[in-house]
Amino acid sequence: MTERGVYAVLTGDLVRSRDIKNAYGEECMRRLKDTLAEIGKDYTAPFSIFRGDSFQGVSSNPEGALEDAILLRLKLIAGFDRDNSALRLDARIAVGIGTVRYLPGDGSAGEGDGEAFRLSGLELDAMKKAGRGIIVTTPWGDVNTALPIFCDVLDRMLDGYTKRQAEAVMLTLAGLTQKEIGDRIGTSQSAVSYRLRGTGYDIIQKIIEWYRSQIRERVGLAEKIDA
Question: What is the extent of the structural domain holding 19?
Fold first, then answer.
């Protein structure tokens, strides 16, 4: 099946998966599967897991890809039952934005091909060596100039979150008020406010909105040219 238009391919793997599995068995893999199923439920090709702890999915909504990558990491950090900073559950995620030349008829991502697949795969290999957690690459040079800076900011912030902070930020990004978050997790609004203090969640929201506007503008121009 050949696909037209601009897509997002998200390729990732668990950080320190061998240590995590040795310490906690398959509990971490169950959490990964549940998180991927939730994030990718509306994807063109839902996430599939390969090589034990690597994953890949294809979204027809490239504007939402950065937020998806952030939420995926937050859900892993917040949802794992352990709160051990040395062995917490987290992932590296490389997002490639571009065209998709081919997807198998069954909709699986693993055998797909195209610009978005190549950009995503190349970046994941590179970011392992660089110690990065999120990177996004697009076909547009001016966007690519700014994206590494914003992704570095996101990495520094997410890397420092505790389980409770990640949970509070995740629910804030989902649009819940501090009172609603408190009701959801069984704590007070003041406790939620305390957890959010110093997380810089408002900066994350601004980066997501900047990314959305940049991709929306360029996808719109690409669609006009194709028409």
Answer: 7-140
